Each structure stands twice: as C-alpha cells, then as structure tokens.
Amino acid sequence: QVQLVESGGGLVQAGGSLRLSCAASGSISSIKTMRWYRQAPGKQRDLVAFITSLNSTNYADSVKGRFTISRDNAKNTVYLQMNSLKPEDTAVYYCNADLWTTMYTYQGYWGQGTQVTVSS
To answer: CA-to-CA distance for 56 and 60, rounded, in angstroms?
Structure first.
C-alpha cells in the first residue's frame, strides 16, 4: 500500500504565498519523478511542475518564475512553493509520483488533492 497525502492548501490574497507539501508513505522502495498538477472547476487537470530523482525540474509557462518545486528524498516528500499568487492559480492541486514499491512493481500514484483559492 502506498499513500500520497497533500497539505498546505488554503485561502490567500492575490500576491501572497503558499507552500504545498506531499508526503508519500507505505511500501516504497524508491521514488522517481514527482509532479504537481492542478485542476480548476470545469477544466482539465494540467501539469504544473515536475522534479526528477536527479532534481531536474520543469514548469508550466504559467507558473515559471513564481513557483518552485523541490523534494526531500529522506522524507519522501515533494514541495511546491507558490509565490506571487494570482486568482487564476485557484484550483485543486494534486501530487503524483512514479515509484518502485517493495513488491517490485512500478506505477504512478496520486494524492487526494488540496484546494488553493486565491482572492482578488
């Protein structure tokens, strides 16, 4: 069993900051790429950022320069530091991780999501 649990969402004014965390737990052998997605009401789920096991990162154009993804491998946790937030950043944010389990299976797992609301 593997679980991904997000935290850190909430309500913030435009221009403010939030830090999301996603902790993976369970029968984990190693975690490869970790990602943050977001889904606004009535829209598709979009990739926001990802970080590889070698700490290579990539960002959606809409968040470049404002968001920073990082990871703590000792804690099996990925973070998303979000600065200069805009109302259009309002969405449910989901983390996703590709990982090897202790049962030698390799697959992607999703967290349950955390709501981020940015008021104007």
So the answer is: 14
